[in-house]
Target: Gfo/Idh/MocA family oxidoreductase
Amino acid sequence: MKVGVIGCGYWGAKHVRVLSSLPEVSLVVAIDAQTERIEPLRRMYPSALCVTSLDEVIDLIDAAVIATPPRSHAPLAKRLLAAGKHVMVEKPMTASTAEARELVAMADEAGLTLATGHTFEHNAVVKHLRDMVAAEELGKIYYIDTARLNLGLYQPDVNVVWDLAPHDISIINMVLGSTPTAVSAWGASHAGTPFEDVAYLRLEYGAIGATANIHVSWLDPSKVRRVTVVGSQRMAVYDDMLDEGRLRIYDKGVQGAPLDGTVPMSYRYGGITAPHIPMTEPLSEVDRDFVQSAITGRTPQVDGRRGLAVVEVLEAAAESMATGRTVNLSQPAVV
Model:
């Protein structure tokens, strides 16, 4: 396949690197209006075609990865799908649920592949955690707590929720195998920015009786990338900042409340294990899955519907922050 990468900034340049290494890709086309981004790629990947406009190559390519600012995702994806091209869109897939639904419908009608770049759904640790939850190794899941914090990087066109929360929403949906039934959110803007730079989200998974709390921030002294899953039997912590032992399983818990309703006094303190999980580069898995899905016609691991599910939560969070109310979502989907 001949695959274009639209938008060759930090993340788009990584797609160019990965796609250039895939045997299924005969030509990589780097597309960016900023020549200062194109020229380094031209030197690093001499076999790639580097251009400044999609118009120059839209008839040449078979598929495209969109790695531009979020508000441009839907217009570009619609143009490519209308031209009969397979499309993979970086997160968030679109800036609204209406746009996301339109892309899903277009891809379905044309029989084209539509994938979303939620890299953590290709992460070996997240997959292992999903399998543990599905096998009920942690017992009944009470709640999931995530924190994605750092000092920066402020974005010029979206708030911290649309920038960082897609990662955690997709992780939680994947681990629980469901989507939320209700969303509430609070956010605040500091440092003179027009967008919220700190936010908290609460997701209710009514179908399975679990909840999730998401904390995202561009204004925190420490870089944190952590997911905590609390079950009735055991607990798990995925810390993406660790070099080794990123997933740790805690054999701890509360034995259960007495029949008289008093505060439980029986706690279980067991050992801590860190399973060995062979790691691969998630972005390589993302691009390989997209290309192979486009070639074979199978559904990609993270398809447009999974991207839509994340956008629904983001849009609900925006409504909740604006109104101060909990926003109910449609019936949960199995993901």
